[in-house]
Design brief:
It comes from Nocardioides anomalus. This is NADPH:quinone reductase. One of its GO terms (molecular function) is oxidoreductase activity. Keywords: NADP. This protein starts with a strand and ends with a strand. The strands form three sheets. Strands 3, 4, 5, 6, 7, 14 and 15 form a seven-stranded mixed beta sheet that branches. It has a six-stranded parallel beta sheet with strand order 10-9-8-11-12-13, sandwiched between helices. It has a two-stranded antiparallel sheet with strand order 1-2. It is α/β, with parallel strands linked by helices and 338 residues long. The longest helix is centred in the C-terminal third of the chain and has 16 residues, at 279-294. It has two domains: 2-123 and 300-334, Medium-chain alcohol dehydrogenases, catalytic domain (Quinone Oxidoreductase, Chain A, domain 1), CATH 3.90.180.10; 127-275, Rossmann fold (3-Layer(aba) Sandwich), CATH 3.40.50. The chain is 29% helix and 25% strand.
Length: 338
């Protein structure tokens, strides 16, 4: 099979196309013939920084394809099933930038009927991260479904990003009023296409006033990508007992929290990363995300605020560079025909 591999960390030039044996699934494992792979910031960050004890790595946490073979003891999946993958390279050497991958069955999720492989490969890290952020509040829902967030106003920082877009779509599906911040008119158009009720340019001097106008009683939950830049704004617009869910460190690795304004509101800061997320929470996310996809509530493409950028398997290095360079939308690697 064709696979993208690297055996040393560094820039995207360490990636190369190689021919490798098709892997065989062991007990509890599933082999998937991949059609698409999704590229996330975590892919280039791992490539640049850590081999994690493996001699050779095939990058890629997300993907979509068709079940090709089953190991002993696998239930609920069958050869020929269309599926999407999550955390495919977590604690494994071989992810989704290859024609085939073998995964633990728990990381292989049926792709709802009618959903494209483009959508399936775009779920994974962004959608599961968004789900955790939306369900971690003290008074919010633990599961997402229509009506679960009817009483809530959600502020999504960076609504044109992959996680931000997924958070907008999921929160809107669950009934929340969604406010989002962006940095340009172009990104504002994408956030509006995703379903945000109110879009605010955070660079404007009146950003705080605009958010307060959209949420006069205060925001119940913030999905935060850049706490070092946005904490003051978050404190200003949240209501008592709100939650600030932080999933990234864009714009700075450290920030200062003023104690009095924070504890006077009984605020909760919830930090999250998928790799150490409790399995029960991850499973709940997979179920709810799949339900949203089946309902047509999670979409990709320009009309959903997620422009798609396609690269061939041979162009995986360019795909990594596109993500590292801040490509707006979803970068996908085309591995096979649909």
């Amino acid at each position: 099979m064709r696979a993208i591999v690297y055996s040393e960390t560094g820039p995207s030039s360490v990636l190369s196309l190689a021919d490798r044996e098709v892997p065989e699934p062991g007990p509890g494992e599933v082999r998937v013939r991949l059609v698409r792979a999704g590229v996330n910031p975590t892919d280039w960050k791992f490539r640049a920084g850590n081999l994690r004890g493996f001699d050779e790595v095939v990058p890629g946490q997300d993907g979509a394809g068709v079940v090709d073979a089953l190991g002993d003891g696998v239930a609920g999946l069958a050869s020929g099933d269309r599926v999407w993958l999550v955390l495919a390279q977590h604690e494994r050497a071989h992810g989704t930038a290859a024609e085939y991958t073998v995964q633990d069955a728990a990381r292989v999720v049926p792709l709802p009927e009618g959903a494209s492989f483009d959508l399936g490969a775009s779920l994974g890290v962004p959608a599961v991260t968004a789900h955790r952020a939306l369900t971690c509040g003290e008074f919010g829902p633990s599961r997402l479904e229509p009506g679960a967030m009817d009483h809530m106003t959600v502020l999504v920082a960076g609504g044109a990003g992959a996680v931000g877009n997924a958070a907008i779509q999921l929160a809107r599906w669950a009934g929340a009023t969604v406010v989002t911040t962006v940095s340009s008119p172009e990104k504002a158009a994408l956030a509006a296409a995703a379903g945000a009720h109110h879009v605010v340019n955070y660079k404007d001097d009146d950003a705080e006033a605009a958010i307060k106008q959209a949420a006069p009683d205060g925001v119940d939950l913030v999905v935060e990508v850049a706490p070092a830049q946005n904490n003051d704004l978050d404190l200003a617009v949240t209501r008592t007992h709100a939650t600030i869910a932080i999933y990234a460190n864009n714009g700075g690795d450290e920030y200062t929290v003023p104690l009095r304004p924070t504890f006077s509101k009984n605020l909760r800061y919830q930090y999250l990363i998928l790799y150490t997320l409790d399995e029960r929470l991850r499973q709940a996310a997979l179920e709810d995300v799949s339900a949203a996809v089946a309902a047509g509530a999670l979409r990709v493409g320009e009309d959903a605020g997620v422009p798609l950028h396609h690269f061939s398997l041979e162009q995986t290095a360019e795909a990594h560079d596109a993500v590292q360079g801040g490509a707006v939308g979803k970068v996908l690697v085309d591995i096979a025909e649909d």
